[in-house]
Design brief:
about 120 residues, alpha+beta, four-stranded antiparallel sheet, two-stranded antiparallel ribbon, 2 helices
Length: about 120
């Protein structure tokens, strides 16, 4: 098994950088959840996060008798050929995974860049 450097995880998934020859490959992020793996650039993660935000705003389960316990709906991804069937709970878990990943990457960039003394 190849080595990884974990960025962020929650109960639903994990985001990490691969290592090759003890060098962390930071140009892309491996994101794994729901038996699916994506190998995204930071820009693609930001785009996916934006798509998720829009999907969250459009959810209106308050007036529905199922209250978010319905069957799944399709969530777009940055890949035009791939949509995901997710429930409301899974949507919020994916949202947390994307936001946590972006936060840790931005924090790391700051601490190892501008914030370094």
């Amino acid at each position: 098994m190849r080595e990884i450097e974990q960025i962020y995880h929650n109960d639903f998934g994990v985001a990490f950088h691969w290592k090759k020859n003890n060098v962390v490959l930071k140009d892309r992020v491996q994101i794994v959840f729901k038996e699916t793996g994506f190998y995204f650039s930071v820009e693609e993660i930001q785009e996916f996060n934006h798509i998720i935000d829009n999907a969250c705003r459009k959810l209106d389960c308050g007036s529905c008798s199922l209250r978010g316990k319905c069957h799944k709906f399709l969530l777009k991804t940055p890949l035009n050929e791939v949509d995901l069937a997710v429930s409301e709970d899974e949507l919020f878990q994916i949202k947390d995974l994307m936001e946590g990943t972006l936060f840790i990457i931005a924090l790391s960039d700051y601490l190892n860049g501008v914030g370094r003394n």
